[in-house]
Amino acid sequence: MSFNLCESNVKNVSVVHDSTKSKMEFDSQENYVVTEIVPETSSNHSVTTILGYCKRKMLNPYLRILSFMGLRPLVNIQENSPILELINCLYIVILIFFMVLGYILQYMSCFRRDRGFWYNIPHSNLYGTKNNDEKAIQENICYGSTIFSFILPSSLHFVAYIHAIYTLRCSDDDQLPVLMERVILASSNLSNGFVVQKKLMKTLWIFIVISMIWMLMSCISIASMITEGNIDFRWIPSERSNILDTTLKVLLVVSILWHDMVEAIIISNYCLQSQLLMSYVFFLRERLLQHAIEPIKWMREIEEFKKMLQYLNSEVAKSVSLFTLINISYALSGLLWLFKLDFVDKETLPIFGISVLIILLWFSIAIIPLVQAIRLTNACERLKEVGQAVRVRPFVHSGTPGSELDSVLLYTSSLKIHAILYGNRITGSLFCFCFVIACIIVMVLGMCHYLSF
After folding, report:
1. Is residue 226's pLDDT more than 50?
2. What sections of the protein cross the membrane (predicted)?
3. For FRET with 67, which of 145, 242, 376, 428 sits at 20 to 30 Å CA-CA?
């Protein structure tokens, strides 16, 4: 089911849904306008009104963001149009070229995402050395392992982006709009459906706002590091013109910001779909408990949910897993460097406040998808208990044959649904176990004098 189908079915009719009647009229451009909402017994609005509101206020703007990031076609092709197809192909080629250029500029400037620049400040011993020999500076500007510091993280980041493009664009992924529509429809028959729908929209916007704040803080940290010292670029003479120097710095900042935008949007897409699936589970559970749906139809809805969950686990989660792997590596590497446990990089020193901010940013964007996966798994576990809850409510399901209730009980108890990242089931107990192990490692390092405060 799609939004277009819902809109086409209501173009010339009035919509009446349960306890609410919405009178609708259409202008010359065939757009419907709600002129009056007359509640009969509650404050619920019509399903079509809610769907239209969600599409205008949340879904369409977010899909335009995905198109801008290259994750969906830039121009929607209604018919076979070679020109529009060429525009879409050229746009994605430009974005990929810009991504690769960003990786090259990071290596040229020796900018590491986990700690920042290796600065050349001849007259200060805050960063680097006082060696004024240009040849020595060019040789030592990027010390350490090139593979682990630049090539491997950039390659994993690029592969994650390409996989996200394939998943969200080349495979004609429409799960987000379809999932949102199913969630709204599933909540429409609940006693407090309109309230939970509004709460859901606010929650989805919170994830989008958080991703924007993360990108803003990342941009601030990069801009702050740019102004701390003189940046040398490999293969570029240090006595270059001011125009070239400014151009390289601007390209570096914009490309790094673009990398962060791509990652934040892809991870937010996973979080949005996880939140919608959690809400879908909750609404389906409440509909069965309130006897707003027949058991057989309910089990069919669960099968549709399992397909969407499988798509999230097998397709969307792969690129998110790669990004999370890189982010955790950045966070831990930056933390060890902050505690002066890097035995090679002893010349660069942290920038007060900015280095801590970078580590917190990497930890936050790494933890958010893990938390969402844990919450989704917990929601799926609660779904297994609904069969028992229905069976012990004889008054709510008094008209339902006992054989159907037994079928629901057997069906729910045999469900195997959970969120998957890195090919493994993500649960709160697993997360707590990893956290305890990390705390033990930190304590042991401190007792063995590897950490000092």
Report:
1. yes
2. 83-105, 204-226, 246-272, 316-339, 351-374, 430-452
3. 376
